[in-house]
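Summary for the steering committee. The consortium agreed at its last meeting that each partner would contribute one worked example illustrating the joint modelling workflow. Our contribution is presented below. We chose a case with several input lines so that the handling of multiple components could be demonstrated. No manual editing was applied between input and output; the record is shown as generated.
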Amino acid sequence: MKEKDNPESKRRSKYTIATILFVVMIIISGLVTLVTMIYFRHRVREDMNLTKSVEGDPERYYSLVVRDNDDTYWHSAYESMKAQGELYDVYVDMAGKNLSVDYSKYDLMEMAISSKVDGIIYEADDSEQSLTLINKAVAAGIPVVTVRTDAPASARRSFVGVSFYNLGMEYGKLIIDAAGEVIRSKPSDKRDTVSVLVLTDGNMQDTSQNVVLSALKETVQKEADDSYEIIIGTAQIDNSGEFTAEESVRDLLYSASLPDVIVCLNEVNTESVYQTIVEMNKVGKSIILGYDDSDIVLKAIEREGIYASITVDSRQMGQDCVEALNEYIVYKRVSDYYGVDYKIINSKNVSEYRMSEVTDEE
Amino acid sequence: MKSKRFFSNLPIQTRLIVIFLITTALIFMVNVFVYVNINGMIEQIEAVYSSNISLNELTDKLTDVHEEMARYLKTKSTDSLEEYYKTSQEYRDQIEALTISTTSTEVRYMKNCIVNMSYTYLDRADAAINAKRGRNVSKYVGTYDDCLKIFDYLNTCIYSLNNEQFKESSGNYAGLLKSLKYSEVFCLTILVLVAVSNVLLIILATQSITNPLKLLARRANEVSDGKLEGELLTVESEDEVGVVTKAFNQMVTSLRDYIEQVKDNALKESAMMEKELRMNAALKDAQLKYLQAQINPHFLFNTLNAGAQLAMLEGADRTNTYIQKMADFFRYNIKKDHELVTIADEIELIDNYIYILNVRFSGDIHFEKYIDEELTSIEIPSMTLQPIVENAVNYGIRNIDWEGLITLSLYGEGDRACISVKDNGVGMPQDKIDRILSDELVPSEPTGDSNGIGLTNVISRLDLHYNVDNIFNIYSEGENKGTEVIIRVPFGQ
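What follows is the complete predicted structure of the assembly.
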């Protein structure tokens, strides 16, 4: 049996190619398997939110206890607190946000105390209960910083908020401006009085509103033009229930003749009043002075449905709260009062304000 | 390469089993790999869900602790106190062991709250129990209220945490479902890849079996078509196909040898046949020579010449002429050293023969010639016409009552020269003609009147010489109607 060299070597090379092909195929399959498996695992972890590196527990937990969790005002404040907290490895929790039961702020305060958080930011009031809870917390070694509204008699370590006297003065000035507008638009024989209705929050149990009101009245008295009389009336808007504020505002505005100027001291009232006026088709008949910078309010200012709104810099407020607690925990002492700026938004500066909001958020 | 050779040397069955095992193992490995990975992922998910379960257990235990405390405060029974200590310790252990796998700080905060709140609760509960034991009624009632509140908070917190966890898990579940979809695609891709490589492997392996078989079949077809030449098949492997290939090669070699042998034999046989033919021809030649030798009249001629001279000396002119003619007749035989003579020579012989016969039979035979002189130079075998004429005389006109006539004609007919010898004698029946022509009539012993050359001899000599059809024919129209013999000689022969 002679074996010719040529076909034999050809066959051999064919076999070599085939074997190499097969081995390459197997290697490719193996690699594909490996790569897809790795990719797959990665995908699964990503889809299941497991890829985020799990940092250790933050150094401290602070709890923010406020009366109304849903208030947009508190949302922006809370966001800035969280951001500020992250700088110091502090987690700030908005108490009750994730709970299935709607607890009162006192219950939430109790919970925060029994949870042994490292600090509490509390929207205080003048009630005995607040006082007791603040003192209980401090006694348990948890520093308390009151925010927006104060409880000066308590053992709270600091207060972060606007000066209500200044706020009242600012409202007074706005009322005088608005009254001027009213007088200009009225026929000359009826230019003697301007009626102002201040809507207060019926559930605010501290003195802050009273301070605002008295400062407001004082400013109007001092600085108003003598050629006409500004009559300031107040109305309490029941804010106890979930939806009662809007109802009471409606009742109030429908039942009596519209005042020339309506002053709202909180966000809900501002929005309710504006909405009711729009529904009554009386835009422009009453000048609305609002509070806060919610989107609805800003839009209303743009449409000149609201004359002006005073807003507290909630971001700064949030930052200050965290700073105050940090300072106290680290140095065991802290300034008694952190003043927060406020701004007046009107149709002239509203777009500018919006721009600054956007850039701030970035 | 060695392994390949080793592989192709394995028996086909073993090879098929090896292929099957390899492919199965590949698929199996892929499956195992995929399942291990999926299991790993499911474990991760389980870890997430397990925290939900531990939270539920926590609630149950907390309720137990609370109930036992309340019972003790109500009844102050030692059983409930023991039960309280037991459950509270268990609850403490559970709290310490509580782990929640999450990435959300919010959830971890909640867990932290629950842990701390639990400790607060247990402290308060211990305080209440101690106050009860110390019979401090106002204290334990107040503390119990605290406990109740914290119990409520705790339950809410655990429930809410459970909810949060469930929300997260639901998200994870959706992710898992999505992932399973990917895994389907991945697994399918991998399986397809492995299947393709398996098919490749199988094609490769079976080709090592079928290719030699195909080659073998092709070669077998070639062999069956008679193509025995060409190289033998290469034996690639030592398996069954290799064995068959070897056997086939052996067969082809044997066939080749055998055919060689057969060819050799055939060659030898044909050589022998040729020899035999030559011998036959020689025999015929010898016979012919013998026949001619029989009528070789050297001796007669010489003696006749002597007789003629004697007759001349005695002045017997007629005898002289007669003997002279006879001498010429016999000289003809001597003259023809070569076997071919011209028709003219043959005619001259006939003239002499007739003269002799007429002397002998007192001029009974009339002889007429119609000769185309142009054809007389054609050569024919010698001693062709004389036996025919002799035949015509002896059997045709010998015993007839009327005057015998023999006519000799030479004429062209196409590409043949026809020599006709016709008598007006008794004629010849057809069956006799047939027998003469088919060489069945055995020449009778030469009679005294014959020179010994019969018709059969003439026919066979003409056949041998010309080897063409229709060279010799006998015609007779019936009894007493005479006989005609025609020889058709091709020109140039």
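Residues 164-311 of chain A form a domain with the Rossmann fold fold (CATH 3.40.50.2300). Chain A touches chain B through 53 residues (CB under 8 Å).
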